[in-house]
Write a structure and sequence with these properties.
Layout (H helix, E strand, L loop, with lengths): L6 H9 L3 E4 L5 E4 L2 E4 L1 H10 L3 E4 L5 H7 L12 E4 L2 H11 L2 E5 L4 H8 L6 H11 L5 E3 L5 H7 L1 H56 L2
Parallel strand pairs: 1-4, 5-6, 6-7
Antiparallel strand pairs: 2-3
Amino acid sequence: MDIDDFIPELEKIRKRNLEMVCANPDLRANEGGKFVVRQGLICQAFRQMGGKTVIYGKPDPKIFDRALRGFENVSKEQILMVGDTLQTDILGANRAGIKSCLVVEGGVTEYTILQQGKDVNDKTVMSLIETQQIYPDFVCPKVTEGKHWIQDNTLMLIAVFFVFFTVLMQILHWMKINVFKSCSTLGSRNSFSILSTSAKEVSIRKFKSGV
């Protein structure tokens, strides 16, 4: 869906003189490899139509203050905002006084550069940052999810497991041999005679008790 698909419904809302509350000002987002319309773009279109809007979300520092409530004992120097959008994630972090990391691949930053007909590289990323005058503390090419890491490294994980299992079996085999030797030596000298004595004592007890 494109923004034009929302216009008819937005017009109905405007005619009823209703106010729109936007809790996520992001314009677009990556969903399944496609950049789709988000609430921020809908809110922007509604405002251009003359509609009334209330925005509560990034980059408003109040949303960060609310998120950090209960963590007053944590220094802001220990907090890092990770996001893919300069205008919301990074600007919001800057206004809230916390460090930020801009993720490029798969996010709005990559989408913006591609929309300009440019390749995504260090030069074009820095050019976008300079153009928007919104500066992150760090820039990261991408963030890999754990499940993707597992999928990408399945063969390595199988190899590590096989080596671990082989070593474990060797250790258990060595322990079994040594324990068996110790038990055999002990049994040949003491265990059998102890068991024999115990059996005799049990027999004598049963005989005396008339069992």
